[in-house]
Amino acid sequence: MEVEPYYYHPLENIEDVDVFYEAVERERLTKSLSPERPYTYWTIELYDQINGIRGGGGLGILAADTRRVAEKMGVAFALITPFYPYEVRQNLKNGQIVDQHFPVNYRNFGFKLVDKVFIKCHDNLCQLDVIEKKFKNTRIIAITEPNFGELYSGTSGSDHRLYQEVALGFGGYAALKLIGLKPAIMQLNEVATFFAALARLDELVRNGMDFYEAVVYTRKHTLYTNHTLVQAAEAEFSEGQFENYVFPNLKSLAVKRWLKDKFSNGKLKLSSVTIEIAELKSGVSKLHTRVADYKDIAGNKVKFKAITNGIDMDAWVLAETMSFYHRANILDRFNAPTPNYDEGIELLSSEKIRELKRYGRGILNACLKDRPDQNGKILRFSGNDFIFDFKRRFVDYKRPDLPFRNPDRLRNILEKRNAHYIIAGRVHAGDETMSNKLRCLLEMVNRDDYLKTHVHYIADYDEKLAFGLSVGSNVAINIPIVGLEACGTSWMKDVANLNMLISTHDGGVADASINSYLSVSGENDEEELNMLYQRMEEAILAWENDFDLEFIIKRQLSAFLPIISGTRMMKDYLDYLFPM
Prior knowledge:
CATH architecture of the largest domain: 3-Layer(aba) Sandwich
Number of domains: 2
CATH superfamily of the largest domain: Glycogen Phosphorylase B
Helix content: 40-55%
Strand order of the largest sheet: 5-6-7-2-1-8-9-12-13
Number of strands: 19
């Protein structure tokens, strides 16, 4: 079987965007990308509440942003994901996180049932519904069934988790064939999507292609995008689990033998075979690609191409702010920075910054009207109130508790401006350690009469609350332990919405100079904590001084707009996937 040639015009720098857009408009993006041969994007998680799918965090939000950016750029694009029939909402009861489970129906969100496909588990046929929602040039294809469970149900190495991943891979690939689509490229987001590429390899061999030619073909058309840093932290599956859930779905004996050879002591990490099946490999920030510790079967360190994540600006930036960006010629019609975007940024005055934040404050108040804090209080902030926020997954490496290690110092900082500190972030289901850490943090806060009324935890963090805080806060706190954040995108929304960013130099933030924002660094936690408090005091003073406010916000925009652009991200992927 002959591999079809690709044509793509690579872009060397931001000045080439007009050439790229002309190619898109002339439908000359590639010879291979078409409605029948789309760019296929595989993800175990999609966080797209407008379309009725509620994920667990950044991976799902990135997936939704990527599809929307592809839509705007005219890229033929199919996103394949599970539709989980239950979603989890979190509430706070007696200081403890409580998960509540709600059924969801895809028909309520414009999805249509296409047909059914089948996979095998324990040699029994399992029926999966194929549902689809079409957009202009993109589509979401999902597989689902009533007992599919919720996102990330069970432990990472459990039978049910393997079933969900096999269902996405083999079921999702069968769904593509059912609809009549052939992937021009398969982007595998994290190792949970490995089985989609395995299904393609099995099909090629089953249809008569030589096994080694099929491996080469599959590898050349597969991109593995890694979103984590340490391979050792990944769960393993046993050969017995594969006998029950994976091997029954393979028809080629050669593919079965190839896969069986990858086990070591009866165990297999999916990353090891995902690395084998994908010739193209990308990380999600420059720092990530340098520090990610992954090795192939032979023990060689894996090299990743740095393609930093980006955001869909239309989805995450206040409409009035986007209007200013376009009027000032900061962003072009595809929301990428213009060649002269720095000149437009100079038109941004302190008066305009404050005006736009007042608009955002109204949106935040509307978002909070039915979301009480830990003490049952409904919050409403005036335009003069000062707000710090920490809105990230409540996990240890992001250090949500760091500012509270010296409550007296924190109280003094907040009192100077009568400021508020909002915490919003989901605790992973079953994470008792972080659930208890949150409970202890809130107990400490509530023992202090001032902090009790100025530190607020908002439960059930979701897209709506993320947007409200991005547009309505003054300062965003992003303080992961350096070397543990792959990229992060919450901070990107903060920068685009004219928040001051206080951050460690980690993840995608480290794509720019450490002098581009209010940076936090130190040799140990104590030094970092002292610098964090200093930066919080600086931010309060800067918001009260027109020159300092303009300087910090303009510096952030100048450094980060090209980095956070979803258009830039998609262009980088296309350059990598379809070189000249």
